[in-house]
Each structure stands twice: as C-alpha cells, then as structure tokens.
Amino acid sequence: MSAAHVRRQVVGRGIPLPGNDIDTDRIIPARYLKSVTFEGLGEHVFGDERKAVPEHPFNRPQFQGASVLIAGQNFGCGSSREHAPQALRDWGIGAVVGGSFGEIFFGNCTVLGIPCLTAEMSDIEWLLREVEKHPDRPVEVDVERREVRFNGRAIRAGIPDGARHQLVSGSWNSMGVLLDAGDAIERTAHALPYVAGY
Description:
By secondary structure, this protein is α/β, with parallel strands linked by helices.
C-alpha cells in the first residue's frame, strides 16, 4: 500500500464540539445531498447550526484549519448518509475522538481513512475543555498505540481491531488494494475459461 494511505497517527489542531447524539442530518443537512459528487460539501458542514449560532465551533476563527474533531457520545448517529464523513473530510477533519459513534458513521469514516477513536467521557470532557483553552496546540491521535495525546497528557483510546488494522496498514483504501493486486487479478482472469476463451 502507498505510504499516503497509512493512518498510524493523525496530528493536528483540535476543534471541540460538545454535546451528545449529534446526528448525520445535523452534520450535513439533507438539502445538500443533491450533488452528484461529494465535492464542496465541507462548506455546508453543520450548515443550519452555523447559521443559527454564529459562535458555532466550525465558525470560530481559532478553529479554522483544525483537523481533529473532539465529540461527545453517539456522534454520527441517525441516517446512514456517507455525506456526513465526506463533508467533515472536505472541511479538513482527519480524525475524530469521541465517547462513542454511530455504527454506520464509524464504518463510513473508516473507508475514507478517517480514524474514529473512543475514550472515557471524563477524558473527552477534559479534552473539550483543554482544546477550547489551547486551540493552537496539536492533538496527537495515535491509531497504532490506541492513544490520544494533548498538552502533555496521554489518554487511552479505543478502536476495533479490524478498523485499526485497515488504517495502520493503509488497506482502508479499497481502490488502492485492488490496484496493488493488479498483476494477481490479471493472472486469475487469464486462467478463467470464460475470460480467456475455451
């Protein structure tokens, strides 16, 4: 696999998003799902909330360019739209740390190469407070070691073995896996009578 697909660590400034049960319709409102591609979805991430609440974290200048989202419990619940992680990625999010995740949202993030790690809510609450106070400091999301580090503190984090393996090996990128296996696919195809002829 290409080294560009490996996600052993994601390091970047954090953006705190307090609250539980933030669903995919809040992440990307349904009216933005009409496009044929996912391009440009980032500008509409949390579109309704950002209009209603000017101080929304995704509006605030100190969090622009942040790449590690700190969320609460059950983040990404609700409908299965893959537009939600696509919009977050397009905005610049490269990893999410939360109390728990909607199952389909978690899977959609993994196939996009966005690690989602869980931590105890006491640790999440500490991260939310500290990132708010120190928006210029990096959050280190260590997928390989199952750890999140910030401001001198290391937090134990969880991620299922399968997702962790896909991310640290780069095999989350199914197209990359197919391209890497190109020669083997060709050999197999030429050995099949219905492809190579009788």
